[in-house]
Amino acid sequence: MEGHRRVVCGATQVIGLLAFIFLFYTQSFSFDPINFLLRKESSLKWNETMVEVGVFEENQQSSFKSLLRDDDLRTLETIGLACNSATGSLVCVTTEPVKIDTTTMEIYLPTRPDPPNPNRNFSVNEDGKIIQLIRPYSWHQSDILKAITPVKFLREPPQQTPPRRCDFHHKVPALVFSSGVFAGNIFHEFNEIIIPLYLTSRSFRSRIQFILVDFNPIFVAKFNRIFSSLSDFEVLNPNSNTNVCCFHGSIVGLKFHSFLSINSSEIPKGNSMIEFKEFLGKTYDLKIENASISVSKPPVLLLISRRKTRRFLNEDEMVEMMEGLGFEVVVVKSSKTMSDLDRFSKLVRTCDVLVGAHGAGLTNQVFLAPSAVVVQVVPLGLEWPSAVYYGEPAVRMGLRYLEYRVGPDESSLMDSYARADPVISDPGSVFAKGYFIGKEMYLDKQNIRLDIGRFKSTMVEALRLIGRTTPLST
């Protein structure tokens, strides 16, 4: 009992001493604990990346440098900012402390002496300070970039009065990019945002804060799993967080290699589409299985059924033929179904063969199991984009690829044009008049009525590639 009393008595004395110190501190230094706690709680709700003192994580230096070429690295050391414009995309990197005004999307770098001959990527404003304006979208087509919110790098004036205050300090770097103008089209979403985002941010191992200009909440919700896999923090919407945020380094823009592709020899080096598919498999918890091994059940074929243009006019006949070959056919018609990636990715992973006319739905090949087969039906006049956008990428993903080229008699354009008309006989001459003229004709006005007998040969080959035979063969 004595011992127990001593413990209680000792604790009481300590509590009394602490209370005295607390009261002395609050009275002497006008410290309001209630307001302090409220401010702290409010700020913590805003974002977990903010800290009292931002400390740059040194192991991220190599991640920054991986985005630049050797001559870019020299520029980075000289002026603290470097931009790489290889393969058409523009990515700007700084490892210096920056202040990002999310209201104007201006990024302020510390003042430092500028070299007499600045890098050609930069311009000089009226004050003689180096600036860089970048529209952070990976596919640098002029007509697209016009709709992208610009981000500007500026030197902060040394005599700024009052000095620009940091509302929040972050201990990880910022990566600024745009959701673009094609949100809702899965090809453009993967091609210009998701794959480039993976390329640009992967080496930071989730220790990076995404800032999304042109913020699209539907797009963010759709790819939330991917964002969560690439960053430990919620995507920041500049429109709803109008503050000055301070970071120990930033990247603006995303690396782009090629259509639905990653080139391991291009900056940042060492990545591949095989690794990207593995990343998707882990992100969406997809089973790892080889399409050609599962012989205990009928092979599953996923048919992408377009509802507007490039429709299969005799789709029922196609399905009957495929089922006759032994396929279990799953027809997907709803874009809403395909936009639920959590569910749809798992459906795609169970399929041995993916069939579709040239179009965005073929982008779902990124979810296929290794060694599955992609069959692209190539409409009249669309041989080049079919090969570049989907055919070549399928091979780089480790998939087997077949294409079925539509003949003039299988195109609905034959209903309106004679066989000798350039629209039928020379599609190249139509595209030569302008991309949008060709697009309107071959992408927007064309449907397909397949020659079932000829197409059947392609499907028999698909069966062979996954190690199966037709019912008649067995």
TrEMBL record:
GO terms for molecular function: pentosyltransferase activity. This is Glycosyltransferase 61 catalytic domain-containing protein. It comes from Centaurea solstitialis. Pfam families: Glyco_transf_61. It is found in: Golgi apparatus membrane. GO terms for cellular component: Golgi membrane. The chain crosses the membrane at residues 7-25. The keyword Transferase applies. InterPro entries: Glyco_transf_61_cat (IPR049625), Glycosyltransferase_61 (IPR007657). Residues 285-375 form the Glycosyltransferase 61 catalytic domain. Signal peptide: none annotated. It is a single-pass type II membrane protein.
